[in-house]
Structure formats: structure tokens, C-alpha cells
Design goal:
287 residues, Jelly Rolls, six-stranded antiparallel beta sheet, three-stranded antiparallel beta sheet, 8 helices, 19% helix, globular, binds 2-oxoglutaric acid
Length: 287
């Protein structure tokens, strides 16, 4: 596919992105794909991988575990999905979604993270609100006309039709203003200005790391499943792997390999700061 064929934001989407700070894209995955990925999420929880470990690790760091709770309705937060199935690799530059990422971010980008989260139903989790990018990004705010530093695509694998069902909850416009962080006014999913977004399995929410967001509590009686895929400007590093395993690289297209950090030459000072000369051409080639 050439650049001229690439899907781009409509005027309405461009306005929503600039002002609200997120897009709701309907039906990005079809029903078969939703079923497939939901089954994969159930499968990978029985396999070794990275899961959060508050006891052993500093905040936000993941530990290698033998498996998560095998109950498909239980909590799971698995990172670094690509090695689990070719379909997780192909989702990196999924047609219909990746074109929009390119339109928003420009071609000098990398893939930075993959994740599957299951929010179990229950009363113990109150939800939480944050920016992505750890301690740094919440202090970096871009303007309406700027390209974002980093972006997340969140695919719903479960219908969200009622409040407090684990909805993706946003503070529209919060990507461009400071937020109270250490007081009783700290944002949470039921604070004034919070919007719990309803959606169907297969829909995708696209948002910059700078947007205040997070999961609402899930009291729906059913586990809520999502996949999360992150992209960053090339000078910002990926944060899911030291380097992608060769077995994953071997299964990638040239564009996927480039997104995973293969520049086509060995690293040297200046790499990633400036892009390879064919960067734009590679980003606009789908295979
Ligand atoms: O909805 C979730 O489970 C977490 C989503 C989120 O806040 C994030 O991906 O940063």
C-alpha cells in the first residue's frame, strides 16, 4: 500500500484528537478476531510470562512468573505478548489502525509495548487514574497541533455497556493541562470530569500517554479483557523488552521489524536520534 492509499483521520477525528485527546474507533477487530484474541488471553495466562509483582519489584515493574491465575475470570496483566502468537505480531501494524497511528504520530516511530489486561469483577478494585510513561510524561504536555510523544491503542475484547464495568475512563482534554496529583483532588474514576467510555468488543480507543485515564471498577459480574499496544517517537525507547527475541524478528515483515528497532544496520551513536533514510518508505509499506 502506498502513502496515497493510507487511511487518515477525518476532520472530526482530528478535532476530537486535538481537543478531547482520544479517539473511539468502532469495529477495528471483527467478531472472529475478538473471539480469537479472547481465547489467546485465556491461553497465555497458563503460560510463563511477565506479570506485575508489587512484592518483589519496584512500582510498575514486572516479574517473570510460571503462569497467572488459570481462572479466565481472574485478574491478569501480561506484558510482552508478541512471542505468544503470530497474530500478536500482526496486530503491531494492523491495517485500519496503524494508518491512523502514522497520521497522528508521523513516520519516525517505534513500537514500545504490548499488554493484555483482564479486570476481574468484584468490589475490591476501586479503579485508578494516571498518565502513561511513568513519572515523566505527566509533566510533559504538548499543544493541539503537536505530534504526541507516545500513543496507546486499547482494544476491547469485552462489551462495555454500563458504568463500573471496568470501562476505560478518561478526563477529556487532560493531555494539555496540569492535574492535581498529591491531594484530595487527585483524579480518580468517579471524580468530576471523568468519563467512563462505553464500547463494543472489537472497538479500539487511541490516546496519547499524556491523557489522564484508567480503568473504572468492574462490578459487572464478568471479567473485562483488553489488549494494549503502544507506540512512541523513535528517539524515545521501547519499554517492553531489552531487544525483541530473534524468533519474533524472524516472523516479522520489514515494517514490523523496523517498528521493533531493527534499523537495517548495527547500532551506532546517532541511531534512533536520526532515522534510516528509508524510514518513510518502510513505514508506508504494509508488507
Ligand atoms: O483498563 C485497564 O485495565 C488499564 C488501562 C490503562 O489504564 C492503561 O493501559 O494505561
Amino acid at each position: 500500500m502506498g502513502e496515497e492509499d493510507a487511511r487518515v483521520l477525518s476532520d472530526l477525528q482530528r478535532e476530537q484528537w486535538a481537543i478531547d485527546g482520544y479517539l473511539h474507533l468502532e469495529g477495528v477487530l471483527n467478531a472472529d478476531e475478538v473471539g480469537f484474541f479472547a481465547d489467546q488471553v485465556d491461553r497465555i495466562r497458563t503460560l510463563p510470562g511477565y506479570e506485575p509483582s508489587r512484592d518483589q519489584m519496584p512500582l510498575g515493574h514486572y516479574a517473570w512468573v510460571d503462569h497467572a491465575d488459570p481462572d479466565p475470570e481472574a485478574f491478569m496483566d501480561r506484558r510482552d505478548l508478541l512471542a505468544y502468537h503470530q497474530a500478536f505480531i500482526d496486530l503491531v501494524d494492523r491495517p485500519g489502525l496503524f494508518d491512523l497511528v502514522l497520521d497522528i504520530m508521523g513516520p519516525y516511530i517505534q513500537f514500545s509495548m504490548s499488554q493484555a489486561i483482564v479486570r476481574e469483577s468484584g468490589d475490591s478494585f476501586p479503579g485508578y487514574t494516571h498518565t502513561d510513561g511513568g513519572e515523566a510524561q505527566r509533566h510533559v504536555r504538548v499543544t493541539e497541533t503537536s505530534r504526541p510523544i507516545a500513543v496507546k491503542a486499547m482494544y476491547l475484547l469485552t462489551d462495555i455497556t454500563a458504568k463500573d464495568s471496568g470501562a476505560f475512563t478518561v478526563f477529556p482534554g487532560s493531555h494539555m493541562r496540569p492535574f492535581p496529583q498529591n491531594s484530595e483532588r487527585r483524579p480518580h474514576p468517579h471524580a468530576p470530569g471523568a468519563v467512563q467510555l462505553m464500547g463494543k468488543a472489537g472497538d479500539c480507543f487511541l490516546f496519547p500517554h499524556a491523557l489522564w485515564h484508567g480503568p473504572a471498577p468492574n462490578r459487572s459480574g464478568t471479567a473485562r479483557k483488553t489488549l494494549l499496544y503502544n507506540y512512541c517517537q523513535m528517539f524515545v525507547r521501547w519499554y517492553d523488552f531489552g531487544a525483541p527475541p530473534q524468533e519474533v524478528m524472524d516472523r516479522c515483515t520489514p515494517r514490523q521489524r523496523r517498528l521493533l528497532g531493527d534499523l537495517g544496520y548495527d547500532f551506532r551513536p546517532g541511531s534512533f536520534f536520526y532515522a534510516p533514510q528509508d524510514q518513510e518508505a518502510v513505514m508506508h509499506q504494509s508488507s
